[in-house]
């Protein structure tokens, strides 16, 4: 009986120890995958914006113009991993480029760290 309790306690400590080692790694990978999704979405939106420019000789005023244009470049505007819409600035506000598409992160506010940091590519 005591031997079973010792084995159970040892097993519980072993599982807790493994969880302490594995969980931070899983959480950082989760953050990595979220950022990768945003990077892919932003790259796709930027490609659609460039296609719009090729057709109309001007950049769209909003991301919705990509759907409503005569060519219908994309079917819908993606949302980021936190359920927020991507921000489109034409001209760019954060960088010195022509336009930019930004995910403001989990807090949907400018700036931040970790899940709250802004993710953008600019052209």
Automatic annotation (TrEMBL):
Source superkingdom: Bacteria
InterPro entries with a match to the protein in the record: Pilin-like, T2SS_protein-GspG_C
Protein name: Type II secretion system protein GspG
Chain segments annotated as transmembrane: none
Domain spans labelled Type II secretion system protein GspG C-terminal: 26-119
Pfam family for this entry, one: T2SSG
